[in-house]
Amino acid sequence: MSTQGVHPVVNAGAIREFIRKRYVEPARRRHETLLTLRAGDIHRELGLRNRVPNVCQVMESKLLEKEAGVRVSSKQGPPSGRGTTVTLTYEVNLAGVGPAPRGRAGDGEVAAEPGHSGRQHPLPEHPGVGLFFGLRGLGADLFAAEGGGEAWLARERADFYGPGKKELA
User: Fold this and answer.
1) What integer is the mean pLDDT of 64-80?
2) Would you give the DSSP letter of residue 20?
3) Is 66 helix (H, G, I), strand (E, B) or coil?
4) Pair (11, 91) in one structural domain
5) Pair 33, 94 in one domain
6) Is this prediction's pTM over 0.85?
7) Residue 4 — pLDDT band, cuts 50, 70, 90?
8) Which residues fall within 8 angstroms of residue 48, CB to CB, at 6 or more apart?
9) Neighbours of 48 (CB within 10 A)
10) Is 107 inside a domain boundary?
11) How far apart are CA 50 and CA 61, in angstroms?
12) Residue 85's domain spans which residues?
């Protein structure tokens, strides 16, 4: 019997293990607090065919969060929630297995360490968090001088085709 064209049977446990070993553990060793994965990449690397919904379901599962020590921070993709472009960003618990601490990294909150009810440690801060929050309100003065954001946008739309151009009806 030939095995050409036969793809390995991969269940949810195997997908979770692949994500943990291939992505989460190396990210933890590099002390990365955020990890972004795309369903299509995992599907392709596992050599699967027509199993994208399974991969998406595993990526969103609470069991993956528990086993890998991550927490889903954000999700992007099609409205169906299933497709090769589904992208999830995880907060990685640098201490190891167990759910990642709740709360936004860098907001100064303190989280209980897993398995130690009385012990507390500050949440790790991602290097880009300070930069991101530093950009807040950057255009406020600019838009205020122009009469507000909506007024500026209305003028930009009115001049979109340039002077003397006929407007589309």
Assistant:
1) 92
2) I
3) helix
4) yes
5) yes
6) no
7) very low
8) 7, 10, 54, 55
9) 17
10) no
11) 19
12) 7-101
